[in-house]
Amino acid sequence: MPLAHRSHQLAAKAWEEGKLSAEVMTAYAPPFREPLEQDNNIRKNSTLADYQKLRPAFDRKHGTVTAANSTPLTDGAAAVILMTESRAKELGLRPLGYLRSYAFTAIDVWQDMLLGPAWSTPLALERAGLTLAESHAYRYARSFRRADAGQSPVSGKRPLCPRGAGPLAGHR
User: Fold this and answer.
1) Alpha-carbon span 19 to 23, nearest angstrom
2) Domain range for residue 52?
3) Which of 50, 64, 98, 165 could form a disulfide with 46 if both were Cys (CB 3.0 to 4.6 A apart)?
4) Domain Thiolase N-terminal spans what residues (predicted)?
5) Where among 40, 74, 108 does a domain terminate?
6) 43 assigned to some structural domain
7) Is the preceding omega at residue 31 within 30 degrees of 0, hence cis?
8) Is residue 129 pLDDT above 80, yes or no?
9) Average pLDDT, whole number, for the chain?
10) Where does the pLDDT of residue 147 fall: very low under 50, low under 70, confident under 90, or very high at 90 and above?
11) What share of the chain is helix, strand, coil (3-state, %, to 5)?
């Protein structure tokens, strides 16, 4: 199953099961009268055939980036509360996760474009003192998923974006 279709299906399922409700806030965006309470760019009812009908967004002749597998032009914002674990406990909050490490790698975009995760993942794991076996799932905050699907050093070893990929799920 193509990654874009899989991602949209997983995101739709996660919303239906209520797994994402606590991760978003309701927005009241004038001039609209109805509140925005869910991601509104998930292709819940799309079929594999529907994705094949989508035209490339940029390179009409050879392109592969479409409205289904990339960040929408209406990509929104996010809010994060970052604090120590002790402060969260003082406030009666339960941490959703921990920032243990990160990595930024600069590569030659003319030869290695979109391969950043393949270089950064092992470095971030090493810095955190972790191994891939110690993670249960992973995701990349990338605008274009194609690199993640085929170039990831962890492809096929752990669930990739188990609730849908970032481009359609607000880079969650």
Assistant:
1) 8
2) 1-74
3) 50
4) 4-86
5) 74
6) yes
7) yes
8) yes
9) 77
10) very low
11) 30, 5, 65
